[in-house]
Amino acid sequence: MKILVIGGVAAGTKTAAKLKREDPTAEVTILNKGEDISYAGCGLPYYVGGVIADRSALIVNTPAKFEKLTGVAVKCGVEAVALDRAAKTVTAKNLSDGSESVYSYDKLVLAVGASPVAPPIEGVNLKNVFFLRTPEDAVALRQAAESGEVRRAVVVGGGYIGLEAAENLASRDIRTTVLEMAPQILPGFDQEMAAWAEDRLADQDIMVFTNERVTAITGEEKVEKVLCENRKMKADLVVLSTGIRPNTKWLMDSGLDMVKGTLLTDLHGQTNDPAIWAVGDCAMVHNLITGAPAWSPMGSTANIAGRSAAVNLAGGESEYLGVLGTAVCKLPGLNAGRTGMSVAQAAAAGIDAESVVCVLDDKAHYYPGSGEFIIKLVAAREDQRLLGIQVLGKGAVDKMVDIAVTAITMKARLADLANMDMAYAPPFSTAIHPFVAAVQILLNKLSGKLVSMGPADFQAGKAEGYRILDVGMAPAVTGAPYLDFTALPAGLEGIGKDEKLLLVCAKGKRAYLTQNRLRALGYANTVVLEGGTTVNGTELVK
């Protein structure tokens, strides 16, 4: 069996290597446009910041080493330019001399990846304007950052790579600003969670401007200014992180099914041509919750999809059931992770969902280095299936996200998760694990034991008509009357039992305890502000 793989890096090399393990007799050849067959694309921002010291650490395998390890034939500097499905051939151009060769196949794997999208504006070709997609990009960006000539940097794009680039540039004492065209950074997070992260970045001197479209980059010989619809800012360096586009233009007339240039595949990784598979950033997979096609240009997805496709190519059976949009990002003093559906995504999918925002300790509060998680948990209202989680904090947000991935994959309901026997010791967690605690809080909300309002609803003005009561350990809310529930009398002077009361503390827990006490005294219209002043701030009274 002759199998031709177009593209390397993550998806192509994973498919080829696994295929040779599954069927050592298969004749497997990789055609790769670049000279680096396998590199750590997700590590590029950390090379820029010097966390990864040497470029060589980014190179997972050289072509020669990969050939020896796997038995796969590798041809680099070769670009596929035409596909003849009827003849089962691919025409490729040798980039060193322009000559063309024709390669035949029994089965074809398209792992051609994606390339950065340059915004259609003036100045993208100026000196010190960079993308961050390849090791060469990272080397050039690091050299500029280390030149001593860069004091101000602008990162265009507030996705994960853009934010990681911003963190690593700022770590070099470069004043860094992030410009995002969308209403928020951190795609896939709900707006109030992203806004909290933006505030934390500002605390670390990384300013974020959302709803900000860049219109031009200007300068004489190199970048000097970035022009936006609402502002101008000086810049010595610009990183463009404005998205990627699948490298499938050469396949547009091939008859392969695509959506916006991304190849459609089934659960086996197979296209509408039974001899052709597609994996990695050029291919669609599926959303695990809805089953709909989903684009997941992540190194994790590329590796998993490639491995699964290889099993099928070799005659086995492997279904890649889908992705959840799982992501994790390291920011200055803050980690951000998410998986599954946000409230907005659930609504778009026609799912009636409930959510809760809570602030919980990430480990025993008395243990040195302990911190807090800001958690948003989302579940289907009808059957209480867990749908998603978003977590912000300086601790192990990836652990919280991975628990949720497991639960969503197994279609777990909140009740299935409420009493899990999680690992506990003070350096690692709390006695009731923060994930379990968040589940219990959401169960309380769904049952009516907790009546609360999320930060998004509060920011949208849904607390209008409510009187704010500060019920924290000590007075903290500017302009609000203070109430200590542990000293609560039989009645509250000057407050009617039918009055609408919004209870605010630091995190939400003490407000919940106050709500219980007030209910027992006949105060029926109390609402807890989720996340308290930690998420919503202290200046809440207008």
UniProtKB/TrEMBL annotation:
Presence of the UniProt keyword Oxidoreductase in the record: yes
Named cofactor requirement(s): FAD
Protein known as: FAD-dependent oxidoreductase
Family to which the UniProt record says this protein belongs: Belongs to the class-III pyridine nucleotide-disulfide oxidoreductase family.
InterPro entries: FAD-bd_OxRdtase, FAD/NAD-bd_sf, FAD/NAD-binding_dom, FAD/NAD-linked_Rdtase_dimer_sf, Pyr_nucl-diS_OxRdtase_dimer, Rhodanese-like_dom, Rhodanese-like_dom_sf
PROSITE patterns attached to this UniProt entry: RHODANESE_3 (PS50206)
Membrane-spanning segments: none
